[in-house]
Amino acid sequence: MNFIKKWSDKTPKILQAALNLALILVAITLVISMFKETWEIFHSVFYDTSENFYQITEEILVFFLYFEFLALIIKYFEKGYHFPLRYFIYIGITAIVRYIIIDHKSAMTTLLLSGAILVLLLSLLVANTKTVRRDLN
C-alpha cells in the first residue's frame, strides 16, 4: 500500500516534467519557424516582386500564429501551468482571418466564418470578465 501511495504522489510530478519538456521543445521549434517566416516576409517584401499582396498578408498572419502560440506557452509557465482561455480564442480568430484571406471565393463561407469570428469575439468578451479571469484575483 505504501508503494502505491509513493508512486501516486510522484506520477503527477513526472507527467508535469514531461509536459514542460515537450512544451519547451515545441517553443524552440516555434521560435525557429518564426524566424524562418520573418526571413520569408522580409525576402518577399524587398526582393521578390512577384509575390502579391495576399501571399505576403498570409505570411504575416502565419507569423502571428507562431507569435501567439509562443505567447501561449509563455503564459502557461507564468500562470503556474495553466493555459488562459482567451489566448486560445485569439489564436482561433487569427486562424479564421488567415483562412478567409487564403480562401475567399465563396461568399457564404466567408459570411459563416465571419459569424464564427463574431462568436469568438463574444466568447472573448465573456472570458475577459472579472468573474471568469483567474489572473485578476
From TrEMBL:
The chain crosses the membrane at residues 14-35, 60-77, 84-101, 107-127. Its main location: membrane. Signal peptide: none annotated. It is found in: Cell inner membrane. GO terms for cellular component: plasma membrane. GO terms for biological process: cellular response to phosphate starvation. It is a multi-pass membrane protein. The keyword Cell membrane applies. InterPro entries: P_starv_induced_PsiE, P_starv_induced_PsiE-like. Keywords: Cell membrane, Membrane, Transmembrane, Transmembrane helix. Belongs to the PsiE family. This is Protein PsiE. It comes from Listeria booriae.
